[in-house]
């Protein structure tokens, strides 16, 4: 269940408390996120919507540990990540987070298999074990027969599937998807969303997604609206969840 | 290696740039090897010089003669084991370009003093019996395709002009590849018989073999003191000091080679450093992704350094392979002008070390830049 107004203890997978993020641009301080509280349970599928500059991607970056908050905390499965050292945070990301980006961000000189294998290079798995994991991930996204293709030999939708396979191959606790359908046509976008839904329903993955597209957002369990750094509205989508106002 | 595919794929992603960078390394390493062998050739005189040999020349200059009568006086000095003498002939074979060192030698003492230049006994015996006989170094014999028994005309411009005819009675070999095999020796008696009167009874230099290297300083002083205030004062020094003075006549070769080598090193560093910096900058987004999915700073630095080192290794090996093929050909072409150019294993190892140092240095700054890349900022830029 997703909750945005809880500032006490909970057993949620992801707990955000009093999250603030301020940037300095020129001589001006820009408050991107203002005192956010959020709880996300395992298996939840949350969509963040809001106008450009509202702080959606910043929130995703903070949840994924690739940015640090000005104040406040983010805890995932009991690990408080906001005070981890850079090295620890990198290790944590490798174990717990899968990233999916709008522009796929595959390494163009590596095949689909090699791209999916990248997170596993950081583990102690043997070559054959890595191969098994990669084949399994590619099978989940329906691209087992495209493993030897380079990204330029794949369609946009297929590239995004490879990116999703890369995100899930190390079996992370949750996926962060930043506009995963933003560069795709409607048909491909539907296929990607169906795949993400399958990851949530069949594989019990927790997904937090940023999107501008209401049709895409509608497929999440919960849609949270960010405006000027504040969660101003939360609406239930097609699954049970409770929501509250901004912190 | 787990990261092998990633490193290799990044390496070959811009093939023309890779070829040009490998070419830069190859040419620089070839030049490095060439400078190293030339430096070695100039310094080798000192390296192969015997510690128990002294060279006595005219105090004014080596081109000024000293009397043959000094030989017996030198021989009487305690600590002197044997004395031999030579003259420079300065001729050419058939054409001006066919230059090589010809020495008029003292056949009675040559082999005993220069025991590292080996002539088979039967050939030496034939030489001693033949007034017009000659012994050639294996390098020179090979250069001109001479065989024992050949009649060899040598033109001289110093001793009255015209061609002198010699019979090739033997071929000498050095006991190591470093020993000079380009010389041509012929008999003192034949020389004395043919040169104009004013050259008779004069030698170019003496080589003095000592009982012990420990006597070198003392004996050298005794020789020079003995002939002080005479019309032919002498200058005696160890063979290695003599070789070093000889090299100095060409200018400061060592300094010149170091300067050229330094310029090559820094130019290569700038070229490869720039290439690596561009290569890393082009991949900012990819490096950010790697960091986002869990590649640590050390792994990112390793990837960039491994790429730079791989370029250095392949380019370096290419350049050294080129040097292995080309330097013997250069050496044959320059035979007689320069001592034999020898590319030793230690030079190859130093060359490879040089390439790897340049590779590591050129990859270090871009690697540190990639390591310090902040993921969020990198995503904002791409």
**What spatial form of chain A do the alpha-carbon principal axes imply?**
globular
- Give the class-level CATH name of chain A: Alpha Beta
Helix content of chain A: 25-40%
Report how far apart the termini of chain B are.
30 Å
Pick out the low-confidence regions of chain B: none
Pairing-aware structural class of the strands and helices of chain A? alpha/beta
- Shape call of chain B: elongated
Largest binding interface between chains: A-B, 24 and 23 residues
Q: Major sheet of chain A, described briefly? A: 6 strands, mixed
Strand order of the largest sheet of chain A: 6-7-8-3-9-10
The share of residues in extended strands of chain A comes to 25-35%
Treating each run of at least 4 consecutive H or I residues as one helix, how many helices of chain B? 14
> Would you report the number of β strands of chain B?
13
Q: How many structural domains of chain B?
A: 2
Count helical runs of chain A: 7
Topology:
The complex is a heterodimer of chains A (247) and B (382).
Chain A (H helix, E strand, L loop, with lengths): L13 E12 L2 E13 L4 E5 L6 H8 L7 E6 L2 E2 L5 H11 E5 L10 H6 L9 H14 L15 H13 L5 E5 L7 H16 L4 E5 L3 H4 L4 E6 L2 E7 L11
Parallel strand pairs in A: 3-8, 3-9, 6-7, 7-8
Antiparallel strand pairs in A: 1-2, 1-4, 4-5, 9-10
Chain B lengths: L3 H8 L3 H34 L4 E6 L7 E2 L2 H6 L4 E9 L2 E2 L9 E4 L4 H4 L3 E2 L2 H9 L3 E5 H7 L6 E6 L6 E12 L9 E4 H7 L7 E2 L1 E6 L5 H11 L7 E5 H10 L4 H30 L1 H9 L4 H37 L11 H27 L3 H7 L1
Parallel strand pairs in B: 5-10, 7-9
Antiparallel strand pairs in B: 1-12, 1-13, 2-11, 3-5, 3-12, 4-8, 6-9, 7-10, 8-9
Helix pairs in contact in B: 1-12, 2-9, 2-10, 2-12, 2-13, 10-13, 11-14, 12-13
